[in-house]
Amino acid sequence: MKYILVSGGVISGIGKGIIASSIGTILKSCGLRVTAIKIDPYLNIDAGTFSPYEHGEVFVLDDGGEVDLDLGNYERFLNVKLHRDNNITTGKIYQQVINKERRGDYLGKTVQVVPHVTNAIMEWVEKVAKIPVDNTEASPEVCIIELGGTVGDIEGMPFVEAFRQFQFRVKQENFCNIHVSLVPQPTAGEQKSMPTQNSVRALRGLGLSPDLIVCRSKTPLEKEVREKISNICHVGPSQVIGVHDFSCIYHVPLLLQEQNLTQYFAKRLSLTIRPRKSMLYKWRTLAEKHDRVHTSCTIALVGKYTKLEDAYASVIKALRHSAIMANRKLELTIIEAAHLEEEMKTKKPVEFYEAWKKLCCAQGVLVPGGFGNRGTEGKIAAVHWARTHNKPFLGICLGMQMAVIEFARNELGLKGANSTENAPDTENPVVIDMPEHTNGNMGGTMRLGARKTIFKTECMLKKLYKNKESIEERHRHRYEVNPSLTHLFEEKGFRFVAQDTEGVRMEAIELDDHPFFVGIQSHPEFKSRPLEPSPPYLGFILASCGKLPQYMQRGCRLSPRHEHLLSTEEGDSDLEEELSKIVLEGKNHSDSNDSTSSESTKGSK
């Protein structure tokens, strides 16, 4: 097993997750089996009880693990299925050590950070690194480990010490440290290397010497700065990697490849390279397509956690995946749901009218998941507007429940219809709690993970899923549609088109005589991939830009020839056709072409 540790310096949120995912992508393009681990040095057991304003969204895995959103990046880039143990927290490690101490496993010894906690960390990494994460069921060959936070954080010290020991435990030829640091560029325009120098000095002082230094900067890293960092930080100039800001993250694997990281890892870790040339060509096609699409599709996301875009990270990425496939540039308008509520007309009229203006100008309306009462009336108002004005609508989890409540109030005449989450004493509880998934604790007590959904009738959603009889999507909820009232909805053309395997829980809704009105209880965004967008999201985007009828007529195929690649519809440029031919026909490019330099890329354009 080869281990690549990705640490960070200067500031957090510098992009270590994207760097780690991109490294995994280029290693997968070499035919290697890759897994990933994210270390979060906080004391929480998992991310399940976090506020979205603290760490962004809670990402849910197939096994029900509630984890950091960076694991979503790993899954999307590497196209793998990770497990809850791929997210390590200080809380998990300490819980394991304390449980061992209570059982007497340490034979009366004094339990200390070194060696007991550090040993637990190393053993955890070695165990998880061997777990298969792809369809081959073979153990991975490379494990990429992202250490959250920054070097010097007091919470992260046990992990840094553990990896100082780990490099000798697995031997230097099997361990590589990549340090990601910020190279700021003040208003004067000169790039500053001192923060990176100090960060590397601190890391070396703790016993880890970086093999590669990845410099994050606003503009391409200047040659003089690269040489200065090389001289002072004891690495060669080719080991200082520049990653500047791009129009989209899909360029990052290509940029790393251009700086010869494949050759470096092959030599440094003695890797056996089995090139899969088409993989990076697909990424190049994706990045080129993202940059060249100019026709926009405006989507209104009506949510509760609007101060931080990462609160809806997977939703937004799923929309972007679908927009690229539909040859559209996503124009996302995030609306605070509470600003749509009627009482805001007098309290904050400016915010009220601005929010409604944004909603009315959108081509499609999406209401995502969430918890709590705040903003629910605004979400219901947004659903009502989309339904009555024939605007494409997609409701995710809570969004589906809000659609049920809106229809119950305005079409079924169920006065005060509501969810027992928001109004426990409502006379018409159309959304109720699931007692078996609420045991009093907050963490890990919801209906979590991949659940099988069965289509009970022919519907648009089933066609979007390529006419599969059943699907598996990930869930995260405590409340469900009241099954005793569903017949009232069905009579009015509000159809519950999918259920769970027991035929009790309502999993998806559709509305007759509407261009696109779909709700789904699960979170399909968690399984969306850049080259394989989530079917409900893709259908929603296509409906919003008027392309859904043609897509359905073609049997839900974006391209008549190859649905697994980016579409090459009439009117697209010669470049896109040529790139797709390269991918499809597998032209005999040499390894040097697979790691194309920036100059040769310009020439090929």
Can you give me a brief rundown of this structure?
By secondary structure, this protein is an alpha/beta fold. The chain has 23 helices and 21 strands.
Named at the architecture level, the CATH assignment of the largest domain is: 3-Layer(aba) Sandwich
Strand order in space, largest sheet: 11-10-12-13-21-20-19-16-17
| General form | globular
| Number of distinct helices | 23
Please give the radius of gyration in angstroms. Answer: 25 Å
Write the layout of secondary structure elements.
Blueprint: E1 2-8, H1 16-28, E2 34-40, H2 52-55, E3 59-60, E4 66-67, H3 70-78, E5 87-89, H4 90-103, H5 113-129, E6 142-147, H6 157-169, E7 175-182, H7 194-205, E8 212-217, H8 223-233, E9 240-244, H9 252-258, H10 261-268, H11 277-292, E10 296-303, H12 313-325, E11 329-336, H13 344-347, H14 349-361, E12 364-367, H15 376-388, E13 393-396, H16 398-410, E14 418-419, E15 429-433, E16 447-455, H17 460-464, E17 470-477, E18 479-481, H18 486-490, E19 494-500, E20 506-511, E21 517-520, H19 535-544, H20 548-553, H21 574-585, H22 591-594, H23 598-604
Parallel strand pairs: 1-6, 1-7, 2-5, 2-6, 7-8, 8-9, 10-11, 10-12, 12-13, 13-21, 14-15
Antiparallel strand pairs: 3-4, 15-18, 16-17, 16-19, 19-20, 20-21
Helix pairs in contact: 1-3, 1-9, 4-5, 5-6, 11-21, 12-19, 15-16
